[in-house]
Amino acid sequence: MRSGHLSVSASKLVLEIVLLVTGIHSNKEVAKKIKRPKFAVPQINCDVKAGKIINSEFMVKCPAGCQDPKYHVYGTGVYASYSSVCGAAVHSGVLDNSGGKILVQKVAGQSGYKGSYANGIQSLSLPRWRESFIISESKPQKGVTYPSTLTYSSAKNPAAQAGEATKAYEKPSITGTTTQPVTLTQALAIPVAEATHRTTSKPLAASVTSSPRPQPVGHRSQEMGLWSPTSYAGSQHSPGSHPGRVPEKPTGAAFQESWGSLESVPLGFVPKEELSTQSSEPVSQGDPNCKVDLSFLIDGSTNIGKRRFRIQKQFLADVVQALDIGPAGPLVGVVQYGDIPATQFNLKTHVNSQDLKAAIEKITQRGGLSNVGRAISFVTKNFFSKANGNRGGAPNVAVVMVDGWPTDKVEEVSRVARESGINVFFITVEGAAESEKQYVVEPNFSSKAVCRTNGFYSFNVQSWLSLHKTVQPLVKRVCDTDRLACSKTCLNSADIGFVIDGSSSVGTSNFRTVLQFVANLSKEFEISDTDTRIGAVQYTYEQRLEFGFDKYNSKNDILSAIRRVGYWSGGTSTGAAIQYALEQLFKKSKPNKRKVMILITDGRSYDDVRIPAMAAYRKGVITYAIGIAWAAQDELEVIATHPARDHSFFVDEFDNLYKFVPRIIQNICTEFNSQPRN
Questions:
Q1: A Pfam family this protein belongs to (predicted)?
Q2: How far apart are CA 289 and CA 132, in angstroms?
C-alpha cells in the first residue's frame, strides 16, 4: 500500500512541475508577443520657460529656430528657471538652431547668474532666482522614468502641482557636496528655524543675524533668492558711505513675516503675488535715452596710491549704477593705464550694472607711470571695435581719469581720437599746483585732449574726497547724445550730392567709368539714414534726379543704384544743373548735415555757371568741381568753393579718375576737422 501511495504522489509532483514549466514558457511567449510601448518625448515651443514646467526631471524635444533673441536666457551652465528651456539648450551648445531632444534637470536656486555670449545667443545675468536647471544631451539615466506628458504650473490646477510636489528628486550640489534626495513636500515642511541649521549645498534660508536693526516691511532676505528693490549686489560700503548698500538681513518677526507664507508655495516657483509686483523682464535692458558705448580710462599708476585707487573704483561703480547699463542703453568697458594700458573688460563682457560693479571691485592696481597719451591711442586703435562690442549706431565716449597730470603728451593722439568719432572727456583730480606746473609735460593737457574746449567735456576736481559730487554731472553729460559733437566725423555727417555730366561727348564707356568713380567715393563714407546720405543728378541740356537723399539708406543699396544709372546723352548746361541740384536735391538736406556737391564734367558749359555757383555758396553748399579732358579749368575754379586749389581737380583722361579718390576724401576730412573746437 505504501509503495502505491508514493507512486501516486510522485506522479502528481511530476505533473505539477510539467504544468509549471509549461506556464512559464507560455508567459514568456506572451511577453514576446506583447510589444512594450515606445517612450514618447514631449515637444515644447521655444518660448516655454523652465519654471512653467512642474516636472523636476524630464526629456523634451525643442523645435528649430530657438536662437531668436526674444527667447530670453539667464545664466551660463546653470540657468535660472525664468529662462527659455530651448534657448538655454542652444546657448549651452547641447542643441544647435535646428532643434532636437534634451534632458532637463531642476536644481536649487542661485545668487548670481552670469551672462555670456555663446552659439548666437546672449544670455543675461540675473542677481538671484528661486530655481535653476541644467541641460544635457538626451541620454536617459538608468532606472529613471521620464514623463511622456509634461505638467505645467497653473493657478487653475493646484491639484496637479500638489501631486507633482510629492515626487522625489536629486538636488545636485552647487559646491560639490553630495546631498540626499529630498521631496518637494519634505522641503516645504522644514521649519524655518531648522532650515537655518541644516547643512545643504544651498541653504534654504539665510542665517538669522543678531543685528538690532530690523528690515523694513516688504523687504526680503538677499540670500533666499528673492528680489529686493533696494539691493546693491556686490557693494561693500560701510553704513553711511553711499546709498545702495546691501540691506541687512531681517530678524525676528520681520523674518517670519517675509517667509511665513512660503510653506504653502511649491519650492522653486515664484508666488503669484511676487510676479505681480515684478516687471516681465527681471534684468534691465538699459536706459534707451542714454545709448552710448563708453570706455573708462582709469589711472592705475604708482603715484595714485592704493587709497585713491579705491576711491576711483568706488566712483566708477557709482557711475555705473546711475547709468542703468543694458543692451538697449549704455554699455561700459574699462581700460587701466600705467606704463602700458590694458583692457580690464570690454563693452560686451558685462551687460548690466550689477555685474559691472562686481567686476570693478575685482580690478587690481597695475602701477607704473601715468601714460595717458598711450592709453588714448590704445583705445582709439583697439577698444571701439565690433569684436569688443561696439554697436556702430551708438556714440563712442572715452572718460579719462587722471591723478595730477600725465607723464606723456596727449594732444596728437587726442586729435586722432576726435577724428575717429570718439568723444573724449577728462576728469582731472588734484591737478598741479602753481609750484608743480614746472613738472607737467604738456601744459593745458586737458583742453588739448577733450572733444571741445567749451567746458562741457572737462571736470577739474580739487580733492579725491569730493569726487563723488561729479557722478551725476558726468552721467548727465555723457547721456546728452545731441551734444556729443565728436560723434560726427567727416565720413558720417554729410549729405553728398553728385552732379554728373551725361552729355554726348562723354560716351557710354566713359560714362560707366564716371559711375565707378562715384561709387568709389561713396564707399568711403558711413551711409545710413542718420549718417552720410547720397543723392545723384544727371544732366545734359536737361536735368534728371536719379535718386534723392532719402531714397536709399545703406551702402549696398547706394552702390546698386549707382550701377543702374543709365547714360542720357545730349548737350552740356552745367549752370542749369547746379541750380536744379540746389532745388531738387539739397533743398531736402537735413539741417544738421554738411552739404557737399561733387560736380563731374568733361567740357565747357553752354550756359553761365557764376550765378548758380554763388547761389550754392549762399546756401552753405560746399562744391567740389572735377573736370576731365576738355573741361575748362577757369570754369572749374568758378564753380568750386574757395579756396579753389582744395576744391577743383582736373584729370586728363577718364581712366585716371580713380587716382583722385584718396585726395578728395582727404580734403573733405581736412576741411571738416579744421572747424573750431570751441
A1: VWA
A2: 33
